[in-house]
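Standup notes
- DV: blocked on the single-chain target, sequence here:
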Amino acid sequence: MTRVFLYYIVFLTVVTFITYGIDKFKAIKHKRRISEATLLLLAATGGSLGAWLGMWVWHHKTLHKKFYIGVPAIIFAQIATAVWICIGFD
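- DV (later): unblocked, structure below
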């Protein structure tokens, strides 16, 4: 089960990172964009590290409060949840 979860996180991290890059490319080319809700949903469902890396590598969404505060908050919440599950707080 742990291995499947790890594969899921790695897969979603890569997909989210690439999605942020695609959205940045679309922004530069003035094409139809990926919605902010989709970008944040990808982060919230397990791709938060990819979102954070995408923000800084692609220099994308770094000035938007809901991203520069929201994505680290999602990462923190996900780490806290993982620790809670692993330690077994009841």
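- Follow-up: Residues 2-87 form one domain.
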